Amino acid sequence: MYFRRPIVLFGDSLTQFAFGEADVNLGWASLLCSAYQRRVDVLNRGFSGYNTRHALDLVPKLFTRESYDDVMPVFSTVFLGANDACLPGERQHVPKEEYAENLTQIIRSIRQSSKTKGDEDFPIIVITPPPVDSETWRRELGLYEYFDRSNEIAREYGQAAKEVAKNTNCHCLDTWQLLNGSILETYRQHLSDGLHLSESGNRLLFEGLMALIEAEFPHLAPSKFVDGEYAKEGLQMEEALWSDLC
Amino acid sequence: MYFRRPIVLFGDSLTQFAFGEADVNLGWASLLCSAYQRRVDVLNRGFSGYNTRHALDLVPKLFTRESYDDVMPVFSTVFLGANDACLPGERQHVPKEEYAENLTQIIRSIRQSSKTKGDEDFPIIVITPPPVDSETWRRELGLYEYFDRSNEIAREYGQAAKEVAKNTNCHCLDTWQLLNGSILETYRQHLSDGLHLSESGNRLLFEGLMALIEAEFPHLAPSKFVDGEYAKEGLQMEEALWSDLC
């Protein structure tokens, strides 16, 4: 097979920039690529600035039925809400109730697209928006008059995402909690510009995701190298090791 | 389309580890993913320890004809020879003449597999093995008695790879040169363990690759963001910008 089973990362800029940014050079998707080397392809489907309204329209295109015939994803992440949570009146704002409905619909739509081979399914992991350091972010945008985001509202949208995950039998990674969203002095250092992730934020998100996979889906974690060989558990490396070839 | 046109990186550990290693955390493939974000999927087909004999067997599997129907790669890199260049008597060693023949055959075989839609083709970039700091490498392996690699032989295999690239109408990225293989004090810092790339080595390789793409195939470089918008030249981002959607 030319295409390996992929991990599909669907979301906004927090996903699009997850291969690393110029001033960070390390992203949670890159760390994931490294952890899963020679086992899966990580497909980044992050679209900067998108809210759940925009994302909903994209699902049928990104997760087409045909392409699943041989390449059912290992798992998919859905990381949306940071833009929906803009304050009312902002162009990207989506009311919280509609956000929850859209997110539910996105998950259903991804699931529908995966039902080509019997009733096979793959895990979908909902990721909540990170905390927002709104002072830093408005300086970044050059907004001196007003705020377009708030940490408290990011938290509330995250709560809504957790509810959606529960109601749709998905797992949830609570990034707001992971980055310690209740203590500004702590979470500020995990953000690069008040909204996006710094190196430590990227690491925390990656580690949280791997911990979730290992706890809930150990068969989908990469096989571990222990005592000079790869464990039989977890996703195996593609093709023989060179030492078995010569 | 679910799968984007990919960039396919084919090679040994210098490719397999190119999403970053634990002690480096930055890889040339990750930098490439970031540069091409929202435009292509970077498929890492690196197989640690493989020489061109092993790689030759893999080509028909990795580059199957069927999968090209809709997803002709943007370009492919072939980065092999670091293992062939082990000293005679070592398990991975392949004589230089056979190395050149195998590399030629690998390139032909990749080209054949791409000829499904008329005579379309995609660029193949041959990458030469980096310099070897054999003192550091043998300490890394715990070899105190003898050397299994030499910088001079790595250079010679690189020369052979350049010849092959020329004879097969491929482009060549001379990593030995890029990392300043003639000056130990310089290239030593571009290696993490005497054989693999450090952060600066990864950066140099990435920058060299991008410079080659921009010089030789500017239409395959990612579109640039200039004066608040993306240039019409180069590979465009997938889907509309959010600011055009709302």
From TrEMBL, chains A, B:
Pfam entry (one): Lipase_GDSL_2
Occurrences of domain SGNH hydrolase-type esterase (ranges): 9-204
Domain of life of the organism encoding this protein: Eukaryota
Family matches, as InterPro entries: Iah1-like, SGNH_hydro
Protein name: GDSL-like lipase/acylhydrolase family protein
Lineage: Eukaryota, Sar, Stramenopiles, Ochrophyta, Bacillariophyta
